[in-house]
Amino acid sequence: MTPPREGTTRRNYDRATYGGHAAAVAASIGYPLIPMQRYVADVALEVDDNGILVYGDVLWTAPRQVGKTTFDLVRSIQNCLMGDNRRAWYTAQSGQHADAKWREQAETFMENKRNPLRPLLAKNPRYSNGSMEMSFVNGSKFRPHPPTEDSLHSKQSDSNSIDEAWAFSYQQGQALLGAIAPTTTTRRMLTGQRTQLWIESTEGTIESTFLNPRLEAARAGDPSVAFFDWGIGPDDDPTDLDVVASKHPGFGILCDMGTLETNLARLGPGEFARAFGNRRTGSTERVIPADPWQRAALPVDQEIADGPICFGAAVGMDGIDVTIVMVTVVAGHYIAVIVKDGHAPGTAWALERIKTLSAKHGAPFAIDKVGPSGALYDTVKRAGVPLVELNSAAVAASCQTVLAGVTNEAGPTWRYRPHFALDDAAELATRRWFSDGAWSWGRRASIGSISALEAATVATWGVDHLPEQHGMQLF
Questions:
Q1: What would the mean pLDDT of 5-32 be, rounded to a whole number?
Q2: pTM exceeds cut of 0.70
Q3: SS in 3 state form for 113-139?
Q4: SS3 (DSSP) at 95
């Protein structure tokens, strides 16, 4: 088996598993499980000493071409055959996608006329929109549903699959979970078995605000979740197809080098890294190119000469963090530095640090009054900290100043002292268009914050619009 990425749940061989049952279903329909699929089945379907499934939540992320759709059919059928009158449901990024994928699954089940499980169907699958269903002689049913908050109203479920979860926003995903949860509340008592929720996907982008926090929590170590993760590493070159192939669990079985070559040419490196390397991207391609960004970095130990300064502060989406950045202008070049103790989770700590910095250095702050930083702006203003006022047009202009300064062909005119938060933000930043040609950094991530880049951007505006020149230096 292709080794998974770090954090993948390990098999507990002290436990029995229904993994062999899933493998038998797969073999019956003519699609034997590949090694990765068998591993996922064996671990996710482990049972305790009482025969109860250990895991209620399963999170599985892998590249394209690993057989997720077929595996989901196999696992759903296996669940339907665990007992009488069970209910398995499948959804994807839209109702249309869910119906199309479910139809593909049902046709896969039916295509092998020697499939020994076909007699277990009570009747042929129904394919009519709104009533798609595979029903079994034991009363169990497998159906698709759209990913809406009322799609499972008055229904019951033992197994739920959310496919292509990267496509959901936080609000969409939470609404879907809200639809699923009530359908499972009585099933443990009725069936004697734990219900399962499967979330399956390739990695997404900065806008995958439903999937991203769940991946971060699983990678941090959540023993209640069966977590499976395959793909390339953060430093792997997605155009090195030998590396991609070595970390793709379906390579040589479900895809070949020709598949990778074709899709790299078709998708481009950024989207190919996401789709076939299963690596999160800031967008389909970076807004701030990687090479110019790296060239704009100052040596860590380089001293910064005196110049006018302005501080910027920004709050990450959903208050995940706050970053405070100092920007100065030296010899016509902007220089941005995340100040000491200027990046931390949450927001409660920020006001005192802002007051201290402004008083110590006699410099104002720039904070966007619109969006996640709005509450911080109001708090700082009421605390009497001097502020450089800016509006949406000012933010948009400064975003373009930063991008142009980083990518300047003659050499960067906007530079920064290296810090992981700035590097992460530069990789993840998207454009948010809000008028004819005007844009600012997108902030639609609840994980992978871009607060560092936003703080540096508003401070860049601030240092050009100081109420008076400040010659004091931060260091």
A1: 97
A2: no
A3: CCCCCHHHECCCCECCCCCCEEEECCC
A4: helix
- Cα 306 to Cα 327, 352, 473: the distances in Å are 11, 25, 5
The residue extents of the domains of the chain are 16-230, 290-464
| Per-residue pLDDT, 301 | 79
366 - beta bridge partners?
312
pLDDT tens profile 80-122: 999 999 999 999 988 988 999 999 999 999 998 899 999 999 9
Beta-bridge mates of residue 324: 313
Q: Which helix or strand (DSSP H or E) is residue 257 part of?
A: helix 257-275
Q: Residue 320: what residue type?
A: I
Give the residue from 283, 345, 286 showing the smallest Cα distance to 315: 345
Q: Which CATH architecture has domain 16-230?
A: 3-Layer(aba) Sandwich (3.40)
Q: Rg of the chain over CA atoms, in angstroms?
A: 26
Out of 3.30.420.40, 3.40.30.10, 3.30.420.240, 3.10.450.710, which CATH number does the structure's domain 290-464 have? 3.30.420.240
- Model confidence over 419-474: pLDDT tens digits? 989 998 898 787 877 766 788 887 654 346 899 999 999 999 999 999 865 444 54
Neighbours of 245 (CB within 10 A): 18
**Cα(353)–Cα(308) distance, rounded to whole angstroms?**
20
